[in-house]
């Protein structure tokens, strides 16, 4: 595949080449949260707000051993639940949302996490980011593009959007990418954000996307815009 490095390449062309590169760089990328059911994924994703997945995965084994399903979570002692999730931050609000969401799942959705975006968004503590994660990884439904802090940062640096609102960023990315790749694109962008394109010190010299990134020269003024060998076939 020839590299699209021309300054006149369309945003969609660049987005598609970024997608190809990310697939090659992170072929085994998957959701890094640990869960055994849709409700556990929902809870883990709620806990991941303003918290690393690594920290969430340290908390959830004990949490899910004690409260494995919607019924037990909804009926849990609030203080005990708060103590179990305390280290994830904002634990009081998260505990309230978890119990509210689980109670609504029991009362309105037959004890099953719904598979529809609108119904998921009706749950306490659930916005589009959480809903997209649950739909994609629990049910294999690509309803949208998950926009977390990494995806927001990288999408703007790569010139795929000028927006700052996650919903508007998601809308822009959905226009540029094939629907079957929406969630995988997010996951791989997250991997790349953690490994290379970090918030404070992006490693542009090691970045295989640098030749497609209008921000690369901002961080590395002497960086040459040469396509990496990774594209050669």
Produce the secondary structure layout.
Elements: H1 11-25, H2 38-47, H3 53-66, H4 70-74, H5 78-85, H6 91-108, H7 117-121, H8 128-139, H9 149-157, H10 166-176, H11 182-195, H12 216-219
Helix pairs in contact: 1-11, 2-6, 2-8, 5-6, 9-11
What does this entry look like structurally?
- The protein has 233 residues and is an all-alpha fold.
- It contains twelve helices and no strands.
- The chain has helices at residues 11-25, 38-47, 53-66, 70-74, 78-85, 91-108, 117-121, 128-139, 149-157, 166-176, 182-195, 216-219.
- Helix 1 (11-25) packs across helix 11 (182-195) and helix 2 (38-47) runs antiparallel to helix 6.
- The longest helix is centred in the middle third of the chain and has 18 residues, at 91-108.
Short description:
This protein is mainly alpha-helical and 233 residues long. 54% of the residues lie in helices and 0% in strands.
